[in-house]
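Hey Z.,

So I finally got round to the NAP thing we talked about over coffee. Here's the setup:
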Amino acid sequence: MGRTMYDTGEECWGDNPPFRAPVFVLTHRPRPTPVKEGGTTFTFVGEGIHSALQQAKAAAGETNVEFAGGASTVRQYLEAGLVDELQLHVVPALLGDGLRLFGGLESGRRSLEVARVVDTPLATRLKHRFVK
Ligand SMILES: NC(=O)c1ccc[n+]([C@@H]2O[C@H](COP(=O)([O-])OP(=O)(O)OC[C@H]3O[C@@H](n4cnc5c(N)ncnc54)[C@H](OP(=O)(O)O)[C@@H]3O)[C@@H](O)[C@H]2O)c1
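And the result:
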């Protein structure tokens, strides 16, 4: 995840954050690693997206690595072609402004296929896979 997501979530996640896994935070302002309950650690990575992904893959072993956000972080991994699947949760509310998740991508058009749709009254959860 990016440092802005971490900074905005840190307080409300509390002592037992929902991740329950090692988390790697992209930042220009590294700090010591907090160890939380439930298996969550936050490692601050100052060497860029490839280093963070390498560390996350090593921690994940055979399981998947998730890019949590925010927009800047997701855009960098999309631009580098390192994302296999994209999960979007669309909620029934119009905000009228906000950050552009896909703004400024220069890597050109890429095709996606729908892998799963889960519709609930609170959100529609869309899972897409990039077509190779
Ligand atoms: N809806 C969702 O699921 C969801 C999920 C996540 C976040 N969000 C929201 O998205 C917003 C944050 O998005 P964002 O795009 O502003 O921020 P972000 O991606 O969370 O973080 C951006 C910050 O991360 C650090 N960073 C990013 N790339 C880096 C790199 N390559 N090397 C070193 N440091 C790097 C920089 O922080 P420093 O220079 O300060 O270290 C940068 O300002 C928040 O409002 C959050 O609530 C929503």
